[in-house]
Structure formats: structure tokens, C-alpha cells
Amino acid sequence: MTSNQHNTTNVDLDEVAKFEALASRWWDKNSEFKPLHDINPLRANYINERASLDGKKAIDVGCGGGILSEALAQMGATVKGIDMGEAPLAVAKLHLEESGLEIDYERITAEEIAEREAEQYDVVTCLEMLEHVPDPASVIKACMKLCKPGGHVFFSTINRNPKAYLFAIVGAEYVLKMLPKGTHDYAKFIQPAELSNFARQAGLDVTHMTGMTYNPLTKVYKLNDRDVSVNYLMHTQKPTQN
């Protein structure tokens, strides 16, 4: 298989195209990606507190333009970022010249790299990606496979309920115009119980879950363990082999 050929059975090309079109604005903190920049410190700190990134080998699945990948590298991890969008990856690589960080970016699916680099990573992150693929369970299995025994796998996605529809689609895309219209498909949102089941079926232990809440008046995001009604983060661990 050449570098330009990929098994795209679990890739939604329409979803990839959405982010390709926006790629040039990925690092503009006042663009459509402002919410990602705003929540990034919360996400990175959550991961670091639970997995202690310094000196660890990490892979960021669905890295996009590299916002989280760079944060993980700044916290001392050796980072690889993968995505199926050529334009976001080009932006991610270009931004390294500005940040001076070293990150290995590659256009490849989670499933493909899991075949090649099984059990190579201490920390696997897959944030804001599962709601954009046809088969999230397949990605979760690949993340488990990439992780070393005893390692950490982190997921984040959006809950599926009327409040999430109101906040993540109507509010964010239409009223506040924080995101481009059509960014999210409500049918692809994943309830915490579903994500927990996918993780357990893949062989991961679910250790913690927290919500990311947004106050539109103060424009501040916070982590809240008691509110996973819209955006939420999940920490799982791969059992240590006997």
C-alpha cells in the first residue's frame, strides 16, 4: 500500500472535507476553532493530571491542525499526531515552525496505525473525533490496540440528548455562531453509557468521566464531574497483562 492509499472504510469523506475547508483558520484563536483553543488547556491538564505526560510516548488520534498535539508536547510527551485530512495536517506541520516543537504527523487511520504500532504508546488521545466517523467502536478498539498494557486512553465527545442538541448545534452553530453550520450531526453524538460500553468491549477499564460546561455569559469553560449532559471527557486504562 503506497502512502497515498488508505483503507478508508471507517472514514466519512464529507466529515474530512468540512475540516479541510477550514484548515487555514485552525490556529486563528478568533476563528471557528476558538472553542477548541478555549477548551484545550482544560483537556490537556486533565490528561496530564491523570497520565503524567512528561517522558511519555503519546499519540493524538484525529489530531486535526495539532492544537492538542502541541499541548501534549509542551507537557513533555513525545507526540505523534494522525488524521485523514491533508490540509489540517499541512497546517499542523507548518505551525511547528512557529512553535519549535517536534511532533511526528502522519495521514493514516487509527485502524491502520494500530496494525503497525500496536502497544507502542503510553497515552492515546482521541478527542472530538468519535462523532465524526461511521464506526466509533472501531476507532476505540484501535486506540486500545495502540496503548501499552497499563497505559491511558482518553476520549471526548458530545452526549446525545435534547440539551446537547440545543447547546452543541442550535446554540453553537446557529445562535452564537461559534462553529460553522453543519459541523455536527446529532445522530452521531454518543451517550456516556454507549461510550463506556464501547470502551469495555474493546478491553479498556473506564476509570473516570467529567463534563465540559460552557457559560455563554462569561464565555468560560469548566470541567464538572456532575454534568456530562453536553461535552464530556472519559479516562480509560488498558489492563496490565499478567
From TrEMBL:
<keyword id="KW-0830">Ubiquinone</keyword>
<feature type="binding site">
    <location>
        <position position="83"/>
    </location>
    <ligand>
        <name>S-adenosyl-L-methionine</name>
    </ligand>
</feature>
<comment type="pathway">
    <text>Cofactor biosynthesis; ubiquinone biosynthesis.</text>
</comment>
<dbReference type="GO" id="GO:0061542">
    <property type="term" value="F:3-demethylubiquinol 3-O-methyltransferase activity"/>
</dbReference>
<feature type="binding site">
    <location>
        <position position="43"/>
    </location>
    <ligand>
        <name>S-adenosyl-L-methionine</name>
    </ligand>
</feature>
<feature type="binding site">
    <location>
        <position position="127"/>
    </location>
    <ligand>
        <name>S-adenosyl-L-methionine</name>
    </ligand>
</feature>
<dbReference type="GO" id="GO:0102208">
    <property type="term" value="F:2-polyprenyl-6-hydroxyphenol methylase activity"/>
</dbReference>
<comment type="similarity">
    <text>Belongs to the methyltransferase superfamily. UbiG/COQ3 family.</text>
</comment>
<dbReference type="InterPro" id="IPR010233">
    <property type="entry name" value="UbiG_MeTrfase"/>
</dbReference>
<keyword id="KW-0808">Transferase</keyword>
<dbReference type="GO" id="GO:0010420">
    <property type="term" value="F:polyprenyldihydroxybenzoate methyltransferase activity"/>
</dbReference>
<protein>
    <recommendedName>
        <fullName>Ubiquinone biosynthesis O-methyltransferase</fullName>
        <ecNumber>2.1.1.222</ecNumber>
        <ecNumber>2.1.1.64</ecNumber>
    </recommendedName>
</protein>
<keyword id="KW-0949">S-adenosyl-L-methionine</keyword>
<keyword id="KW-0489">Methyltransferase</keyword>
<dbReference type="GO" id="GO:0032259">
    <property type="term" value="P:methylation"/>
</dbReference>
<dbReference type="InterPro" id="IPR029063">
    <property type="entry name" value="SAM-dependent_MTases_sf"/>
</dbReference>
<feature type="binding site">
    <location>
        <position position="62"/>
    </location>
    <ligand>
        <name>S-adenosyl-L-methionine</name>
    </ligand>
</feature>
<keyword id="KW-0831">Ubiquinone biosynthesis</keyword>
<dbReference type="Pfam" id="PF13489">
    <property type="entry name" value="Methyltransf_23"/>
</dbReference>
<comment type="function">
    <text>O-methyltransferase that catalyzes the 2 O-methylation steps in the ubiquinone biosynthetic pathway.</text>
</comment>
